[in-house]
Amino acid sequence: VSLSFIGLGVQPQTPTWGSLLSTAWGTLYGSGTAGNSVTWWLTIFPTAAIVLTVVSLNQLSEGIRRATDPRAVT
């Protein structure tokens, strides 16, 4: 959102994990009627992708920091 504010974000019609979560959030707790069924997978999969990406990048950066730290005792 902040990058879009200054004109550097994605265009509105571009699918992103955040927009997928935003549109799917209302279907997570459906009432169970025929027209409004619960579709939990629309929320779980983008959430899992975000979590896996953040954890992976965190582990990668920690590995790079450990490998390049001159004060590390081996």
Describe the structure.
With 74 residues, the protein is mostly helical. The chain has helices spanning 2-5, 17-28, 41-68. Helix 2 packs antiparallel against helix 3 (41-68). The protein is elongated, with a radius of gyration of 19 Å.
Q: Which key terms come to mind for this protein?
A:
about 70 residues, mainly alpha, 3 helices, about 60% helix
Task: Give a short overview.
The chain is an all-alpha fold and 74 residues long.
Number of separate helices: 3
Give the distance, in angstroms, between the N- and C-terminal Cα atoms. Answer: 43 Å
β-sheet strand percentage: under 5%
Elements, N to C (H/E)? HHH
Structural class: mainly alpha
Radius of gyration: 19 Å
Indicate the overall shape: elongated
Relative helix content: 55-70%
The average pLDDT value, as a whole number, equals 76
Unreliable stretches covering 5 or more consecutive residues: none
Query: Could you describe the largest sheet, including whether it forms a barrel?
Result: none
Number of strands: 0
